[in-house]
Amino acid sequence: MKKNLVFWVEEYFYNPNAFQKLLSLLLLPLSWIYCFVMYLRFKSKTAQEFGIDIVSVGNLSVGGSGKTPLVTALALNYENVAIVLRGYGRQSSGLHVVSNGNEILTDVNISGDEAMIYAHKVPNAIVIVSEDRKDGILKAKELGTKIVFLDDAYSKHDIKKLDLLIEVNSSNDFCLPSGAFRERLWASKEAVIVKEGKDFKRVVELKNKSDKMSLVTAIARPNRLDGFLPHVVSKNYFEDHHSFTKSEIQEILQRDSSETVLVTYKDFVKLQQFDLPLSLLDLHVEVDDRIFKIIEDYRAKKD
Is 0.90 surpassed by the pTM of this model? Predict the structure, then answer.
């Protein structure tokens, strides 16, 4: 039931049918109220300076946009770096240091899938999950960090930071609940718009390939993978951040008579504990030098 609802909402936001378009129009008054409230919230905030370089990578809409691979690619270029995120979908609350830059300190249930990706892919970074990003920043500073990357923090208007905002193309540009947009790029808000294909591009490497693979993934808008997929026996989509069970994966392998399950890294960090045959669709991004120059200019102005 939950999976069907999640997929229905994703379709409603990004590829609506006739009924969903009508529903979107009927909800417009609520969208106008929501957007106005978000504007008042923005105007009521005063940005706090933390005495440390802070770069946020976000987007305005709900759902995936490539934040995790972009943050990974950026953070890999810095020393004394920390990544702070909410840790959506984790089975914990409060602040947890997932990695201290030398070793991973928690399991994926405590960290959530995205934080565990950072812990594996940016092994020199301190990775912190915290619902309160300010607490996460202060903890990172306490641990000796010189630059913090915030995952999905455009809306944290009470934190003084450089905002990199990934452009998401959508035919529906309404605010919630009529459309997918959580917020607008307010006129008085400074942000750098980052475009896929111009400022960064995706590169995919297929690891441990087999002749018969079944795709299993729990990412937002999984059809985004279609352009990178090899031939697969079946496509099995779960809701974003789904907590897999071993029996779910075994059932798919047996049903399809597949040799391996093809997963993204976001799925891999949750499935590796089951000791099942996995193939990996490993995604990373290459970032244009323009973005690094923007970050360096921002850091230079703070000194």
Answer: yes
